[in-house]
Automatic annotation (TrEMBL):
Source organism, top-level taxon: Bacteria
InterPro entries: GH (IPR017853), Glyco_hydro_3_N (IPR001764), Glyco_hydro_3_N_sf (IPR036962), NagZ_Beta-hexosaminidase (IPR050226)
This protein's UniProt keywords: Glycosidase, Hydrolase
SUPFAM superfamilies: (Trans)glycosidases
Bias (Low complexity) ranges: 336-349
Region (Disordered): 336-364
Annotated protein name in UniProt: Glycoside hydrolase family 3 N-terminal domain-containing protein
Family classification: Belongs to the glycosyl hydrolase 3 family.
Domain Glycoside hydrolase family 3 N-terminal: 33-328
Amino acid sequence: MSDAAELRRLAHRVVMPGFDGTSAPAWVRTAAAEGLGGVCLFGHNVQTPEQLRALTDELHAAGPLLVAVDEEGGIVSRLGAIGGSQHVGAAALGMAGDPDLTRQVAAAIGADLAAAGIDLDLAPVVDVSSDPDNPVIGVRAFGTEPSVVAEHARAYVEGLREARILSCAKHFPGHGDTRVDSHVGLPRIDVDLETLRARDLVPFVAAVEAGVDVVMTAHIVFPALDERPATLSRTVLRLLREDLGFTGLITSDAMDMRAIVDSVGLAPGCIAALDAGVDLVGLGNPVLGTPEGDDETTFRSVVDAIVAAVGSGELAPERLREAAGRVDALAARRAARGTAEDGAAVRAPGPAPPTRRPRPVRSG
């Protein structure tokens, strides 16, 4: 790749940082003008509805980026950072046993996000809660039965789309059968591929069929597939592309989590994730402590590492272009879809984006 300016633009396009503060820092506005793919907002970025909308307007004015947030309802709610969520979480919806109610709740969450100027909801969680001692999924999951989780996953994706909000199924290929939180360590799930296919992948198949926009990877090792964490594994991501037929954008879970930082390091992990097939690397929550010291330094170190990796041949320029192209396509889809605030009828979302129908997961 000979054009240095274009290379840096593409490197910006595949990164989604967080930042400190309740208004956009100068470095974020500069990065947005240089092609930044997205930002992820956290509870510390939110004070009031008016402040949040002013922030998202400021971000969108700075460049063609996506504004994302973890808004699951229940215990994981950025809009409810002060006072708690107004919406029940996945476990309650699963116990209610009514996918149409799940669709309505997701549409209501989507309406709140549209009012706030958010583009992408990093939800739903479609993990099957198969270990009762799981320290990080628990009530964030719709239940313990794959078929039940699949029904609610489909409904949740449809509900967000009714509100013109992009959806994200997480955490591929499944975080429900672990007793280690990937925020603090590197989990392993020692099940065979048949179990993975019959249990964990079922809700992801349903989400793909429903037209989910984004799939988020898990920082978990599945020895039946690869000894590398799923986020860094071509084998695992090939499963998502080739067997489940997903053609949309793949994003990573936060790359500042200990599962990545303590095993390969933040910047090397981002390079490995992109090389494996991730399209947009999320850097995580800078308020919790960044490996490079502050939000701006962490972001710039990752962009510089991507540029250097292309220059050294570690990361193929074609892979970087492909990843950036998927970010562009998602941003264009979001713009074309509009928002419920544009005056379009909430119950007329239009067709889901095309995907190939998933094929049965290979056993080898």
